[in-house]
């Protein structure tokens, strides 16, 4: 079984390092790079998802997907399309229906941020703006019933932008549990890595049996 981790925008694969290190499955864990998956491709959600799907398809065994924010959307999307491939899901700060107003506000902020802020994460500013723009109409609501694996939905106590959707998602999935990380904001893997690792390991123990 392989554990694949997906970071959010504004992060890099090493954002997961401290979390992975604290789990018992670190030897079977890989943190993927969103920037590398988009390299040489158009910066759209469709292209990113296609590249991610191709990466998951290469795994011969069942996979456990753990994603934060955009990474969680990709993980959920793949579990919908490939229910027999995904053993379990961990979705952190997840959205299943893109909040269009929030995305537009986010893109306005991106426009005034310096290019260097994006380049340190392997992206061009214009690519990030375009990528977010292509996600505005993404809506997975009508396909959630296809997710059959156990799911852990996690959200930081202070992540008010995503908490409501995370709780709703946990109620919509057939086998899901919601966990709130206290005193934690959006980037749970960076803000509370040890606590998050403990929550993940309890979930993994149940999955592995």
Can you give a write-up of this model?
InterPro entries: AB_hydrolase_fold, AB_hydrolase_sf, Hydrolase_4. The protein is α/β, with parallel strands linked by helices and 209 residues long. It has one domain: 3-Layer(aba) Sandwich (Rossmann fold). 44% of the residues lie in helices and 16% in strands. Strand 3, helix 4 and strand 4 form a beta-alpha-beta unit. Helix 5 packs antiparallel against helix 7. The longest helix has 16 residues. It is globular. The model has no long low-confidence stretch (mean pLDDT 94).
Give descriptors for this structure.
10 helices; Rossmann fold; globular; alpha/beta; 209 residues
Describe this structure in a few short sentences.
The protein has 209 residues and is α/β, with parallel strands linked by helices.
Chain-wise SSE layout:
Blueprint: E1 2-6, H1 17-21, E2 29-32, H2 34-38, H3 45-57, E3 63-68, H4 70-81, E4 86-92, H5 100-112, H6 115-119, H7 125-134, E5 151-156, H8 163-172, E6 176-181, H9 188-191, H10 193-208
Parallel strand pairs: 1-2, 1-3, 3-4, 4-5, 5-6
Helix pairs in contact: 5-7
